[in-house]
Amino acid sequence: MRESAVTYNRLPAAELYPILETMRTSVLLHPRPEGLYCPPGDFFIDPVRPVNRALITHGHSDHARSGHRSVLATQQTLDIMGLRYGEDFAGTTQAARLGETIALDGVSVSFHPAGHVLGSAQIAVEHQGTRIVASGDYKRQRDATCAPFEPIPCDVFITEATFGLPVFRHPPDTEEIARLLKSAAQFPERSHLVGAYALGKAQRVMRLLRDAGYDRPLYIHGALAKLSEYYQSQGIDLGTLEPATVESGGKDDFAGAIVVGPPSAFADRWARRFPDPISCFASGWMRIRQRAKQGGVELPLIISDHADWDELTATIKETGAEEVWVTHGREEALVRWCELKGIAARPLHLVGYEDEGD
Amino acid sequence: MNRFAELLDRLVLTPSRNGKLTLLTDYFRSVEDPDRGLALAAITGDLHIAAVKPAMLRMLVTERMDPVLFGYSYDYVGDLAETVSLVWPQTPGNIPNREPTLGEVVAKLQAASRSDGPKVLAGLLDSAGISARFAIIKLVTGGLRIGVSARLAKQALADFGKVEVAEIEELWHGLSPPYTALFAWLEGKAEKPRNTALALFRPVMLSNPVGDGDLEKLDPADYAAEWKWDGIRVQAVAEGGIRRLYSRTGDDVSGAFPDLAEAMHFSATLDGELLVGDPREATGTFSDLQQRLNRKTVAPKMQQQYPAFMRCYDLLQVGGEELRALPFRERRGRLESFVATLDPSRFDLSPFVDFTDWQTLEELRRAPPHPIIEGVMLKRWDSAYVAGRPKGPWFKWKRDPHTVDAVLMYAQRGHGKRSSFYSDYTFGVWTGAEGEEELVPVGKAYFGFTDEELKQIDKYVRDNTIERFGPVRSVRADRDNGLVLEVAFEGLNRSTRHKSGVAMRFPRISRLRWDKPANEADRIETLQALLDR
């Protein structure tokens, strides 16, 4: 405290304000090794270690872990956690309805769609007139497999920065799917293996193919089966999905087929069952040619479930936040952009989140 | 512009030759003139646009965005053209209804003067999307680097028009972008273009390797034998004051060998081997020749130290008289008297190798008199000079390759069919004093093994990985553990780029030595001894 007092004396009033503001907001929410912690509400958001009370934004495994005593999340996120970790993934669970306010020890929390994957939500935390929105992972591109992002006015906006560099500009996903279909027509004797993360991306790619009029069966890796079935049960039509097993046909049967699986499977011996495959990877990282080249990807599909640079900056403006906290990803560029726009910003340095996953 | 940009993006990531051919022929089929011809010229290096320097590009972009954010971006991406194409700010009011076509882009760039070049470039970048911007920047910075040779592009044209690639090669140097007449012919809409240009390339005749049992069926008396010189096969054409040296695929390489071109005071087409040295005294080694390769221009000192000359194999045309249909015996007679009239420091005759039976020739083949000889050539006395690789008239009979026992050090995942296999192998040999031996990498090979062996090595790599870097695995390799590979190669060059100081030519895996302990693999000195020969 003494050090702070000295600092205050030296600063003119105008510069003093943001520091006081930061103090007020970080009393409400601040990083701890377990994750983002709210002392008055005694809960964590997306904790990376087991805690007493966890609020979870979405079902990706670096955000949603098992072993918490109680979990508050959207019903879909709870369902997905159940599918991945088994029904006993937490002591107790509570489903949060989107837009509904829940009081936790005098702190009001509410969940709002984040547009990232099915069930994903931003979490607004409000206490004594200050509102902080922890957006988790989000995107602004339209996605038929989840509810669209809703900007929530707030004092502090916590944003991810997975693609927080001006080089990341995602093209319309329909164009990317059109390139996949064009290639499938150009090389009818080969199979197209599309690498896509098992939760969200895979189902989005399948849905985009259907929306583009592709009505042949899609072949899927076993790791996608349960989640895709769950998406279908939630009313997201993915068409006919068949297991990409050798038993379901000889090698030639996969000629011309589109096969979807987790990216890791394509480097694996599993991929040998397909005739002269063209490896495709659906990811925002595919924007960088060298990334595609190093990974041996022949047909990069720039389809991302994270906001690109233009979406990140537009969203920050839209929330009207006076202060921005930047979490996992390329924090420095986004912090720089905020500075140029006169918005107070700082990196949160949370640990435990993959900034690579997409 | 977008279709061209998409073609570049696909080509650069498509490893297979057939895949590239499909992409190119589809492009030629679906894109109209003049865009497809301009794209072709860009790929073959025949499109001439004033270059923009990287510094200028950087200046243009930092005038438009925060230099700090640009710096972060460039650091991350690593490639200037790509970074600029991605970060170039799009002003919403500035986007035209449609993107410019390749034809419009090329026309604007070619019309731009040196002083308004940057402004024209910026205007084009404003009007284009990300992929198109990348393609435009590649056009102005020179060098597409998409892994497509002019030869492959010509093969794609041949596939597209269902004609022989030799026909394309023969026409090529008389044509210029956007090749409208060529495409019209290939599409069956017009007659084959007539070539009126001088000093054109004539497609080269190639040989087949001697296979098992081939020689038993052949009569030695039907064949002449020559040494197979390991330089670069060239065709020297001089006609009406125009002098050109072509590579065997018809690329014009005159610029790299002005000393030889200067000496072409004749009107004829010669086939031969380009070598360095003075043919009257000594022929240089492959390492000497390397000093002159892959250069667009060459300094006088280099020309003096490593003068280029041509060892002549054949005479295709002289003073406008076509000789290709004549039998080799007759052409050879004409060649001998013709070469006698040329500058002896720049041209000599490829000598015959005397033999009466295959056994004699076999012994000569095994122990050639000069390190730059890589075997013998057999040519039927009665063979006409025909384009391509006909089976029968010409054979190459190569010296046996060198071999070395090396230890597998790194394995990289392959592409396409092999994308789930570790199929590219870096191997090393021992160096260092006794008790302190370590492996030093000496080469990389990705073929020579059977599919079954590939599976075995793949399993070995997966079971013995000690570290992973993206698609590359480092494999356990020390005195007590390691897989020994017998590696065959054609020759060895000194290299300053490799830690080992040597670079292998044409290395391939000849045998898997599962039986051999790693510490019995060869030492670097074995390879160094080959260098000094």
UniProtKB/TrEMBL annotation, chain B:
The keyword Coiled coil is assigned to this record: no
One Pfam entry name: DNA_ligase_A_M
Superkingdom classification of source: Bacteria
EC code(s) of this entry: 6.5.1.1
Keywords: ATP-binding, Cell cycle, Cell division, DNA damage, DNA recombination, DNA repair, DNA replication, Ligase, Magnesium, Metal-binding, Nucleotide-binding
CDD domains linked: Adenylation_DNA_ligase_Bac1 (cd07897), OBF_DNA_ligase_Arch_LigB (cd07972)
Family annotation (PROSITE patterns): DNA_LIGASE_A1 (PS00697), DNA_LIGASE_A3 (PS50160)
ATP-dependent DNA ligase family profile domain span: 301-431
Recorded GO MF terms: ATP binding; DNA binding; DNA ligase (ATP) activity; metal ion binding
One of the protein's GO biological processes: DNA repair
Recorded catalytic activity of this chain's protein: ATP + (deoxyribonucleotide)n-3'-hydroxyl + 5'-phospho-(deoxyribonucleotide)m = (deoxyribonucleotide)n+m + AMP + diphosphate
Name of the protein in its database record: DNA ligase (ATP)
Organism: Mesorhizobium ciceri biovar biserrulae (strain HAMBI 2942 / LMG 23838 / WSM1271)
